Amino acid sequence: MGYSIIIPARHASSRLPGKPLHKIADKTLIERVYECAQKSQADEIIIATDDQRIEAEAKKFSAQVCMTSAAHTTGTDRLAEVIHSRCYPDDHIIVNLQGDEPLMPASVINQVADNLRNNPEASSATVCTRILDADELFDPNVVKVVTDANGFALYFSRASIPWDRAHFSAHTTLPDYAEHYRHIGLYAYRAGFLKRFVTWPICHHETVESLEQLRSLWHGEKIHVDIAKDIPGPGVDTLDDLHKVRQMFVD
Questions:
Q1: Tens of pLDDT along 83-108?
Q2: Residue 251 pLDDT exceeds 70
Q3: In what helix (H) or strand (E) does residue 43 lie, and over which residues does it extend?
Q4: CATH number of the domain that residue 233 is part of
Q5: How far, in Å, CA of 96 to CA of 211, rounded?
Q6: Residue partners of 75: CB distance under 8 A and separation at least 6
Q7: How many domains does the chain have?
C-alpha cells in the first residue's frame, strides 16, 4: 500500500510573510520542499494552499495543487479538506510534510509512513531525534517527547521532560545516562483519523503548550514515535533561519 504526501503552504506567516516564495539559491522554498518529497516513495504529492501566488509558483515546477479555504487556522485543517475533496478511504496514509522543511531526508519521510503502516493500533506516527545538548533540552522552542516501552507517545511538551530530579537540582548539563528526545514535526496520519480530529474541540493541554498533537492524546488516540534514521536539516521559521538554510545551498 502506498501513501500520499500533502504539503500545506500558506502565504500569511506571521514570522516570515510570504515564506513559501522566498528564494533559496535559485529556487523557492516551496520548490525545495517539493523536491524532498519527490525523492520519497510516495504515490502522489499535493501542495495544499489558499494563496494563488503559491499556486502559480507550484505550477511552474509542475506540482499538483489543491486550493483550500483561507479560514483554516492549522495545516491539519488544510489536510482534512484535501482528504475530503479527494475522497480518500479511511485507511489511506497521508504524510504531512511541512512547507518550510527544505532539508527533510526522503528516508525519514518513508520511515514515518512505514511506521504508521507497521503499527495498526496507531492513528498517527511521527519521529524524534536524541537530545545531546543541555541548551536544546531547556529550549522551550524545542518540543520534547516521552514514549512508553512500545514507542507510543505518553506526552509532548516544551518543558524539559523527563525531568531528572536528582541531576538537574544541582547541574545544568546532561548526564551521560540522559535519554531525552526532540520531536520532529513530520507526521503520517490515517485519513479516517484526520476526518475525526478536525471535529474535536481544542483541549486544555493543547492550548497551554501550543501543541496540536496533544489533542490526539487527550482523546485517547495512539501516536507511535520512531527514532529518525537520518537527522533532518533545519526548517525555516524566521528570517534568520532562512539565511542559515541559504548558506547550506551555496556551492
A1: 999 999 999 999 999 999 999 999 99
A2: no
A3: none
A4: 3.90.550.10
A5: 15
A6: 8, 10, 48, 96, 98, 99
A7: 1
Q: Is position 85 within any domain? A: yes
H or E element that contains 82: helix 75-86
Q: Does any domain span residue 34? A: yes
145 three-class SS = strand
What pTM was computed for the model?
Answer: 0.94
Residue 166 sits at φ, ψ, to 5 deg, of -70, -45
| Distances, alpha carbon 68 to alpha carbons 9, 35, 73, 175, 210, in Å | 10, 22, 12, 47, 23
Cα–Cα distance, 160 to 123 (Å, whole number): 26
Which one is predicted more confidently, 110 or 175? 110
DSSP 13: -
Give residue for cell 536544546: 136
- The H-or-E segment that residue 97 falls in is none
Average pLDDT over the chain, rounded to whole? 95
pLDDT digits (tens, 9 = 90+) for 17-73: 999 999 999 999 999 999 999 999 999 999 999 999 999 999 999 999 999 998 998
Cα distance between residue 199 and residue 195, in whole Å: 7
Range of the domain at 26: 3-239
Report pLDDT for 46.
98
Decide the pairing of beta strands 181-190 and 124-130.
antiparallel
Per-residue HEC secondary structure of 169-205 comes to CCCCCCCCCCCCEEEEEEEEEEHHHHHHHCCCCCCHH
**21's grid cell:** 516564495
